[in-house]
Amino acid sequence: MTGVYEARKKSGEIYYRASFTYKNKHISLGSSSDKASCHAMYNEACEITGNPSEHWINTDNRTASYNEAMTLSLGKYISLINFRDNNIYIKTPIYMCHKYFLYFLNEHEVLQFSTDDLFYYSNHTIMSRGGYYFVNDYGMQTSILSRFGIRSHSVKGRDYVFKNGIRMITDTKTFLLSINTMVFPSLLRMDELCTEPGFILTATIYSVNSHPKQKLQLRIIRPLTCFQAL
User: Fold this and answer.
1) Phi and psi torsions of 122, nearest 5°
2) Could you give the C-alpha distances from 172 to 29, 73, 80, 147, in angstroms and in order?
3) pLDDT tens for the 230 residues of the chain, in order
4) CA 20 to 30 Å from 80, out of 73, 102, 133, 191?
């Protein structure tokens, strides 16, 4: 069968691997003990790369045309569409957009990141357990929030919230951090905190780029409007 190759495990057991070549790149599609399943992976990969009208990603709604009945995994499906549309093959389930990218954890859960983090998440698989998002980094489970200066003991809704109710992560501009906690220099104009005009907020700034901490005083100009650095 086209695109199917026989292989052996260390125990001597025979299994099959599926792969195909697209844009001069040889891509592994997966493996199975069933030769027919591997052939189905190959056929699906050819269909995905050759039929954009049937296989797509809607970046506005953060949805994809993936069908659970498919033999290919969702991750491989996203990778192939990204390669087809953006000419870059990434092994993790990333779809690149203008100045940001989408990371598909599953069909219904999609994270959004700044392109500044593309290299990192191209090489690290995000996992989720009980609302905790982490990667395996040198054998350690590292929270993805730590890359944005959010400490492991921080509590969502108390120590930090997401700008305009956004649940997923883009970059430091996504976060609006609460009073008496840390804020970022780029977060001086936000519209989430409800305080009285003239209220003085003294906050400690923790730079994502590991620059020294700074003290900054902020005055609320108008309720629900913006901050102004003093």
Assistant:
1) -75, -20
2) 35, 31, 29, 9
3) 899 999 999 999 999 999 999 999 999 999 999 999 999 999 999 999 999 999 999 999 999 999 999 999 999 999 999 999 999 999 999 999 998 899 999 998 888 888 888 999 999 999 988 778 899 988 888 888 887 767 777 766 666 666 555 555 555 555 544 433 333 333 333 334 434 444 444 444 444 444 444 444 444 443 333 434 33
4) 133
